Amino acid sequence: MRVIFREAKETDMPSIRKFTVETGWRSMSASDRRSLNRETWNKHMVEVFEHFLRKEGSKILIAEDDNHDFLGYLFVGKSTNEMTGQTSGFIYDIYVAKEHRGKGVGARLMKEAEKYCRQKGYTRLSLMVSTHNKPAIQLYRKTGYKDEQIFMEKELH
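Above: the chain's sequence. Below: its structure in token form.
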């Protein structure tokens, strides 16, 4: 399958917001989901999305097939490492339509994000992933990403 990349247009944004909320909700632990009001959290997530979208260097890449059917998207932007002060690229979100998962679309989106970050002069590209999202972890490792830090959490009762 041939994959065509383009920058997101305003007409893409309602769908992308919806998918971002969906992937964000799924990436949380069950205990976090139980503790949140879904409607309130959805609004919060859209605000966070809009905040990162306004940041300098943010870009949403759309993957389409030859018929311009939507395959997925990747949201990439600039990040500063708090420990080192170095600027790098950061993948805020990646989404591949269910019917196109496992066909290389995610890997191609990752490669396109790497190309964009090299053009911006970044020497690193980072992301965060939930430990229970095994398919995403597999994709990231397959495309050369490695574990650098572990974010740990404990519920306090």
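The helical segments are 13-27, 30-35, 38-54, 105-119, 134-142.
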